[in-house]
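Quick note —
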Amino acid sequence: MKHLHHCRAPAKLNLFLHVVGQREDGYHLLQSVFQLIDLADVLHFDLREDETIARVTEVPDVPASDDLIVRAAQLLGDDMAQRGRRPAGVNITIEKQIPMGGGLGGGSSDAATTLMALNHLWQAGMTRSELMALGLRLGADVPFFLLGENAFVEGIGEQLTAVPTPSVWFVVIHPGISVPTPVIFRAPELTRNTKAVKIADFSASPLGFGRNDLQAVAARAFPPVADAVEWLSGFGEARMTGSGACVFAAFASETEADAVLQSVPAAWRGWKARTLAAHPMLHLLQSSSRIRPGA
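Predicted structure written out below.
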């Protein structure tokens, strides 16, 4: 196979996000539920005759050398080379739909889809757990997208337990700003001692459970976030996802979501998105990792 096109990299929502502590190295300890949604970037992979890894799409303010897509491809290629087989190069094209700096995990999801796709194209034969370990080197959220299921998340984001979630529609709003994650986590007023919860606590009442501990900090520092939460709260319980800037609310039907979407102020971007039970690329990963070449 020389190419793999239309590979979807879905966004995620934090149905809740609690900061339950902080490690000595500065990393925050979290509890959250990550929910996959059908808002997605789309990636295309074409093998080259040489060994060059190239992102052929320009992404504003993201040099190719810093892009998690390129770094993921390089990481997998280097791992294969250490095992005695340097893969062919690849051209990577991306159709970007997930806003950057929105708390939707777009960069991490792109990296995970890249690992899934190239594991298949390059016939690397890595298992899902092996790719998750590799992905953790790129960022704490990458293993979640490689798990491919909605998950109760703990630690710094690396402790994952698959968890069922309701099938609903969301309205997701981006209020036109990008929120830098480090700014939120460095804020002295951030609550860092929320009481830990159990999966059963979430499962008893999944929609509207808990809160996002980062929301108050982000809303104070970035007023458009507060404006979006206030506006969307007029239609349902709204909260911020991740460290912002996107906010969301759940609705029982597509019709309800459409009605809200039609009212979104022109200055903001809005989407309707449905829950996903599994990553759309998961079947590819499962088929790719059955046999390791040379085994």
